[in-house]
Amino acid sequence: KALEIYQRLAKINPEAFGPYLAASYNNLGVLYSGTNNFAKAEEYFTKALEIYQRLAKINPEAFGPYLANSYNNLGLLYRKTNDFAKAEECYTKALEIRKRLVKSNPEAFEPDLAMSYNNLGVLYSDTHNFAKAEECFTKDLEIRKRLTKSNPGAFEPDLASIYNNLGNLYSETNNFAKAEEYYVQALEIRKRLAKTNPGALEPDLADSYNNLGNLYSGTNNFAKAEECYTKALEIRKRLAKTNPEAFEPDLAMSYNNLGILYYKTNDFAKAEECFTKDLEIRKRLAKTNPGAFEPDLAASYINLGILNYEANNFVKSEEYCINALALYQRLAETNPKAFEPGLAISYSNLGELYYNMSKSKEAAEYYEKALELYERMEARTPGQYSENLQECREMLEKLKE
Q: What's 382's DSSP letter?
């Protein structure tokens, strides 16, 4: 309704009402982006951008910040929809404008400049351009350190976030010492902040404990991993009590991570307890929003299937593996590229299970289906599934004997 009014007014007096019209387009873009209506979001963000481009030509000082925000919003949208080339283009244009604005007024525009470096860093990290990601995150960090010195209350949460992003980057590039250093710095800030404002900062604190847990688990420091995962779990349990809709997915992840850790250390009783709690939550979540949570539910079934297989509880293992298979079959129909790997794993797991149960006919049937999928996926991405292909072929040869 606001848009309709501003459209009429802007026709009569574009100079006076063009900025309001652009703001209305932008607000609708934010709304549609938040509700995953990406086509409409792009339409409205683009209309806002076109107006701000015209206004910024006439008065760059007044409208440059709005133009940068428009490019940034479109960049966020394109990143969400995996259009990384367009996202980079928009983020870069926002960055260039903000660099110019900072020269004339650093106090006002350095926070936005830091955000632009961060957004580009996340994009480059997503696309595995780790050298560029590190460069952007480092520039973001330098700015946020300066801002935090002058106003810690306002900027320490952002400083913790960039430490966390650098931790993620170094973890992904196997620089575990640096990853630990940055994760710990993020954690220390978040611990301090959560004491004064637990409601706002505890979710981030739990994320920090979880990230350190992942790092320690990946480097086989299982005692430290358990300690961090347990602290994340305790926080998420509290948060899920007050707001289950927001925090139950994270709580399920904590149970899952602890389950994997206990499985790695052969504590099958504790692993089963954690995986079962994870499964209970994900079943509930998948009922209300299957599109969002069925993939995680399928993964939970796989974990319990593998765990029971390792514990020689083949009947239970079969039940969980079949449940995983049914989900992946349905998911792969709508999005084969995303879910065929899970489907292939499910077929392969059942093949191995039936082989060990001396059910040769069933084992061969599932290995054949796994082989067919792996061949198709290998054709798409050569070299990625060669080991899986070899394993399936070897098992089928064994079964023929």
A: T
pLDDT at 198 over 90: no
- What contacts 24+ positions apart, CB below 8 Å, involve 350-358? 350/318, 350/321, 350/322, 350/325, 351/392, 351/395, 352/309, 352/395, 353/305, 353/309, 353/314, 353/317, 353/318, 353/321, 355/395, 355/398, 355/399, 356/309, 356/314, 357/314, 357/318
The tally of CA atoms less than 13 A away on the side-chain side of residue 243 is 10
Return the DSSP state at 384: S
256-277 pLDDT tens trace: 999 999 999 999 999 999 999 9
Which residue in the block uniquely carries the two structure tokens 């399928």?
298
Span 55-65, pLDDT tens digits: 999 999 999 99
Segment 134-192, tens digit of pLDDT: 999 999 999 999 999 999 999 999 999 999 999 999 999 999 999 999 999 999 999 99
pTM: 0.90
* Whole-number Å distance between alpha carbons of 181 and 185: 6
Whose structure tokens read 């440059």? 64
302 has a pLDDT exceeding 90: yes
Task: Measure CA 11 to chain center.
Answer: 43
Residue in this structure with the two tokens 């998420």, named with its chain if needed: 236
3-state helix, strand, coil in the chain (%, to 5): 90, 0, 10
Catalogue the long-range contacts made by 322-329 (C-beta closer than 8 Å, 24 or more residues apart): 322/350, 324/298, 324/299, 324/349, 325/350, 327/294, 327/295, 327/297, 327/298, 327/301, 328/298
Q: Who's near 163: CB < 8 A, 6+ residues apart?
A: 141, 182, 183, 185, 186, 189
For tokens 């919003």, what's the residue?
Answer: 73
Task: Give the length of the chain.
Answer: 401
Give the burial string for 283-295 (b: 16+ CB within 10 Å, else e): eebbeeeeeebbb
SS3 for 140?
helix
The predicted pLDDT at position 175 comes to 98
Helix (H, G, I), strand (E, B) or coil at 15: helix
* 278 vs 283: CA distance, rounded Å: 9
